[in-house]
Specification:
Helix content is about 65%, strand content about 0%. It has about 110 residues and is mostly helical. It is globular.
């Protein structure tokens, strides 16, 4: 039984590592963003998750804010439309990880006052 748990743990670890190596590219995310219904919702949720992760992991004492969304915030659909336009204007970002591109986009569209 102990060997089973060790083997299962190793297999899970390898699967997780393999998934990390195959991060979603900006071009892949863009296809979701351009879709309708559930695929567009996937894009909206992905963008929200990237932003929420940024907020949760940024150390406010050592890293100044780079993304400041004023209230009332635009709708997710508005942000998705702006993201699509931004990616189309920056085609070199297509092969980059989608999360990296999303953060760069958010920094440009929602900069903090200096």
């Amino acid at each position: 039984m102990k060997k089973f748990f060790i083997a299962a743990t190793l297999a899970l670890g390898m699967a997780t590592t393999m998934q990390a190596a195959n991060a979603t590219t900006t071009d892949e995310l863009l296809q979701y963003c351009k879709g309708e219904g559930n695929t567009n919702m996937t894009c909206q949720i992905y963008g929200q998750a990237v932003y929420d992760t940024y907020l949760a992991t940024r150390n406010s004492k050592t890293a100044p804010s780079k993304i400041c969304i004023k209230q009332p915030a635009p709708s997710r659909l508005q942000v998705v439309d702006e993201f699509i336009a931004w990616v189309n204007a920056n085609p070199a970002s297509g092969k980059k990880p989608a999360a990296e591109t999303m953060l760069k986009f958010l920094e440009g569209v929602f900069p903090c006052a200096k």
